Amino acid sequence: MAKEKTKEITPMVEVKNISKAFPGVQALDDVSVKFLPGEVHAVVGENGAGKSTLMKILAGAYKQDEGTIRFQGEEVQLNHPVQAQNLGVAIIYQEFNLLPERTVAQNIFLGREPSRFGVINPPQLNKQTEDVLKELGVDQMIKPTVLVSSLSVAEQQLVEIAKAVSINAKVLIMDEPTASLTNTEVNLLFELVDKLKAKGLAIIFISHRLSEVFGIADRITVLKDGQLVGTKDISKVTTEDVVYMMVGRT
User: Fold this and answer.
1) Is residue 37 within 8 Å of 202, Cβ to Cβ?
2) Does residue 19 have a pLDDT over 80?
């Protein structure tokens, strides 16, 4: 009796043969990776490996020189961050993109505030923000009306994640998200990542901390000098394997 074929999952986003050069530097050279829904996919490599360039291409901040991007199976052209955002790509950079002297609500819905006859509706804005914070389970920690400047680094990161959820993000890129967090805050972040993964988001997790990568990721992609070394299931590799892939020695 013939074996039933396993249905292949359509990647949430796929990059194929992506290359990008800057004056004097080949930042990416023929890189192909698939990012699946409902998984945490770590991207690692030494400084200058091409991680940030690849993420900025996915976020619409850079345009690739060669190669294609497919979003849920359809080829797309990303010429601007707004295009990527409209498709559902959200990126949280190490330097948060928040306005400190505005409230949490104003930051989450910046440029998308609920209004009536062109006038912003603050009660509605705060209610929508509270709904998003409740969805993430952080509504007891963060209130819609507080100024972002009064929040800790970890809380500001939660506001960035809430912003991503509010645009119905399908792909969430996190660039070194644990760099400034305490162990307790890292655990809270990982719980949140698990929730988003369960909702079917594709989460791209960039980190230098391999112990954390092995604690959160389902798959791992290693870049070196702008080239793809390989993509592996996290359960099939050790820390030593990954270090060898990253630097070419134990």
Assistant:
1) yes
2) yes
Q: 33-90, pLDDT tens digit by residue?
A: 999 999 999 999 999 899 999 999 999 999 999 999 999 999 999 999 999 999 999 9
Torsion from C-alpha of 206, 210, 216, 218, nearest 10 degrees: 80
HSE (side-chain half, CA atoms, 13 Å) at 153? 12
**Among 192, 195, 219, CA closest to 205:** 219
Q: Are 31 and 18 in contact (CB under 8 A)?
A: yes
Please determine, for residue 1, whether its predicted confidence score (pLDDT) is greater than 60.
no
Task: Answer whether 28's CB lies under 8 Å from 3's CB.
Answer: no
User: Mean per-residue pLDDT for 199-210?
Assistant: 94
Compute the distance between CA of residue 95 and CA of residue 158 in angstroms, rounded to an integer: 14
Give the tokens for residue 83.
């295009």
**Distances in Å between the alpha carbon of 150 and those of 2, 100, 104, 132?**
62, 8, 10, 20
- Dist. CA 147–CA 101, nearest whole Å: 6
DSSP class of residue 48 equals T
